[in-house]
Write a structure and sequence with these properties.
Layout: H1 2-23, H2 26-47, H3 49-74, H4 91-121, H5 127-151, H6 155-174
Helix pairs in contact: 1-2, 1-3, 2-3, 4-5, 4-6, 5-6
Length: 175
């Protein structure tokens, strides 16, 4: 019975996220997170935390894609053709883009790995569980840090903040 309740909570979370996106209501996004939290707790109760984590992360994604496909098939096509932007292949622009890619792909990856390792090592679970949590949460943390870096206009300041966080968590890792 609890597994069906977890599936219903998961569906309600995806539905509230979709409706909140359609109506531009942020509180429905928060409600979706609460539904997914309830879903994770119920999945944890029935299947264990390893499966609960996977089910809670992947089932809502599949359900949200159903809403996206529905939206794409029912919405009329755009008749206005947008002109493509001109391609800037200057040395300065290319070098800037390569530097940003190196920061996101290398530096932010290392920072997120150190932070995730330090956090999972502090948890009172077996080493295999710590490794599993690190494998699951590290890409999520990396994506959040990369988004934070790319979304802000102050790239150097954000990079220094991420470096400082990684340094602090790295010191915790060595203790």
């Amino acid at each position: 019975m609890a597994i069906y309740s977890a599936l219903v909570c998961c569906g309600l979370g995806a539905g509230s996220l979709y409706i909140g996106w359609r109506q531009s209501k942020r509180w429905l996004g928060g409600l979706a997170l609460l539904w997914w939290l309830a879903s994770m707790i119920l999945f944890d109760y029935t299947t264990g935390w390893q499966y609960a984590l996977v089910y809670t992360l992947f089932l809502p994604a599949i359900l949200v894609w159903i809403g996206i496909i529905y939206q794409a098939t029912t919405k009329p096509l755009q008749r206005q053709v947008l002109r493509p932007r001109t391609l800037d292949t200057g040395w300065r622009r290319t070098g800037s883009n390569l530097l940003i890619a190196a920061v996101v792909l290398v530096a932010e990856l290392l920072f997120s790995l150190v932070i995730c390792l330090a956090i999972t090592r502090l948890l009172p679970i077996a080493y295999s569980g710590q490794l599993a949590l690190c494998i699951v949460f590290q890409p999520v943390l990396w994506a959040l840090m990369a988004y934070h870096f790319l979304a802000r206009g102050q790239s150097l300041r954000i990079l220094v903040i991420h470096f400082t966080l990684a340094l602090a968590f790295g010191a915790l890792l060595l203790l």
